[in-house]
Model the fold of this input.
Amino acid sequence: AKINGKNTYLFFEPTKGDFASETLIIENGLRKALKNNELFLVYQPKWDTKEDQFIGLEVLVRWQSPELGFMNPGQFISIAEETDLIIVLGEWILKEALNSMMELSKTIGFIPKISVNLSPVQFRNSALNTTIKEILEETRFPAEKLELEITEGALVINPKMAIEKMNDLVNLGITFSIDDFGTGYSSMSYLKKFPVSTLKIDKSFVDDVVSDHQDRAIIEAIITLAASLEMKTIAEGAETKEQVDILNFIGCYAIQGYWHSRPLDYTALMAYFQKLN
Ligand code: C2E
Ligand code: CA
Ligand code: CA
Ligand code: CA
Done:
């Protein structure tokens, strides 16, 4: 039963013999998941369509819960964000991703560029930069190979602080991309203040780019905007050849989506790189 305007549901919990909210169940489950290795990462390749070459991987978290079954990040990231769990979770994701790439590099002969999603809550955390620096040092992962994906929402709350924080990381060699671009609050004058290298065009515009002139016009405008700000563009969620051809034609630098590859677990990722060569 939905009890209020938020996504809160009541569940009967047999073990406790009472009702607990779904939020609480997921929250407690996540704490346990972190301890019990129930979380794992998958990696989705980004592809430069013009040069036909691999340019990097986006890290996406997965949760295989013995009690709750397979959980998508859409089902638990927002709950983790309501508590401080996202901080611990985010740290685990970053460390696991960088360690995995160092390990993978022994097999494939190079360290792939990776991008890691940063929740706005993580981004606002005052210890973020120190944590990132510590993890880079500990894993010996090169900062130039790390990209952080943040949403426009993370930037608008305290732009001055955001710029400072980003510049500090950019000085190390880290790059930034704006996730779900086009769905948020950015204006042209606003965007140029932030040290951002890539705009990720939201999947909602890519979905109908073949048939919808307005969506196509929006994507073209984003590409023009990016070019004038000396930023690159990548389209999220490209699933068909028709979409990819149009995106390529209108000057989108890269694509990420099922057309090229689904997100891959570590084993599948090794196979992916073996096939590339
Ligand atoms: P996002 O950052 O926009 O990630 C892209 C989502 O689109 C991923 O869903 C990916 O699997 C999916 N996708 C990629 N290509 C296609 C396609 O061609 N078709 C379709 N239908 N979907 C495609 P996923 O992994 O379920 O993640 C959903 C959201 O959860 C992400 O959206 C991101 O906001 C968040 N998320 C995922 N992993 C993490 C993480 O490690 N940390 C944080 N803070 N958030 C994460
Ligand atoms: Ca993302
Ligand atoms: Ca998206
Ligand atoms: Ca997103």
About this structure: Residues 201 and 235 are 5 Å apart (CA to CA). The longest helix spans residues 85-108. Residues 180, 202-203, 236 surround calcium ion (ligand 3) (CB under 6 Å). The two ends are 53 Å apart (CA to CA).
